[in-house]
Design goal:
The chain is mainly beta. It is about 5% helix and about 40% strand. The chain is globular and about 30 Å long.
Length: about 70
């Protein structure tokens, strides 16, 4: 099991426990709609669909992006 901190766009923190071998997307979609959002892993913007998470990561979901 992997434990990470998930911080939403409203700055609310959640501790999330998830099974190993998972991506940022898997963690974020437990609480938020991922479409159109920017996500940081430990302070760096990442691709949520391909970036793996490890124990102790801090994931921050940022502002909305809108389609043109």
């Amino acid at each position: 099991m992997i434990r990470v901190t998930l911080i939403g766009p409203d700055n609310l923190r959640s501790n999330v426990t998830i099974r190993g071998d998972t991506t940022v997307r898997d963690v974020v979609t437990m609480k938020y709609d991922l479409f159109g959002r920017l996500v940081k892993r430990n302070g760096t913007y990442v691709s949520p669909f391909t970036t793996p998470v490890i124990a102790g990561d801090r994931l921050t979901v940022e502002e909305m992006q809108y389609r043109d």
